Amino acid sequence: MRLETLIEQNYHKLNENDLYIWDYIRTHPDECREISIDALSNACCISHTTILRFAKKLGLSGFSELKLVLKWQSCPKTIFCPDEITRTIQDYQQTMEYLCTVDLSDLFSLIQQAGQIYIYGSGSVQQRAARDLKEKFFHSRKLMHVIEGETEMRKLTHRLREKDLMIFISLSGNNPFVNHTAETLKKMGRTIVSICRVQSNRLIYLSDINIPFFTHAVDIGREIQIWPTNMLFQLNDFLLLRYLEFLDQRGRLQPGCEASQKM
Hints:
CATH superfamily of the largest domain: Glucose-6-phosphate isomerase like protein, domain 1
CATH topology of the largest domain: Rossmann fold
Largest sheet: 5 strands, parallel
CATH class of the largest domain: Alpha Beta
Number of helices: 14
Number of domains: 2
Order of helices and strands: HHHHHHHHEHEHEHEHEEEHH
Strand content: 5-15%
CATH architecture of the largest domain: 3-Layer(aba) Sandwich
Distance between the termini: 37 Å
Radius of gyration: 21 Å
Strand order of the largest sheet: 2-1-3-4-5
Helix content: 55-70%
Number of strands: 7
Structural class: alpha/beta
């Protein structure tokens, strides 16, 4: 298991101190493979207890297991496959082709008629994409609310009204917390929109509308995989443009919306 993966899966649990520890480890990988808890505590100016809590939030037993994970990541570098560039270009092309050709009128009708619109991202990149989506649609004078963390999402779940709209942004569509929340909302009869990569997953089944995007894991050496996810932000751009087109075709685009658009 990669430490990056554990951070991604448990990002919603991490506070400012946890993210500071992660940033130090990320920027000092060789040093941290052999670092003591005292040295890490001094380097980050935080207590031993905070470091132990950080490890446990990632599902590790303690600091020793955290160091073990870091040592596992020091394996020899593998050869990068040039075909990954072509595959990634294809992912972007397929995502854009879908967004340009699919009928999104049902989605936009839901957005236009919704009481309140809420967005929840299942990880760090997904949360940034949620904030970006909020900012993009603000230019069309449509307010969306980004939910920060599991605690806030739990509090909101049973407060969603019938006309409210819930948008989930997930990479895999198999995040346990997101899917459990979606199941609860579905039983309540609430409307769910999901944005996740193309694959068979539980979240798509639970959603009233799904917006897929194409991506794949890229091996970059030392058994590290990354998922190109910048198409999430391009997806936001195109969703806004298609929404403005939707409004314009129905004569509902308010003067000034185009001028305020800053892509």
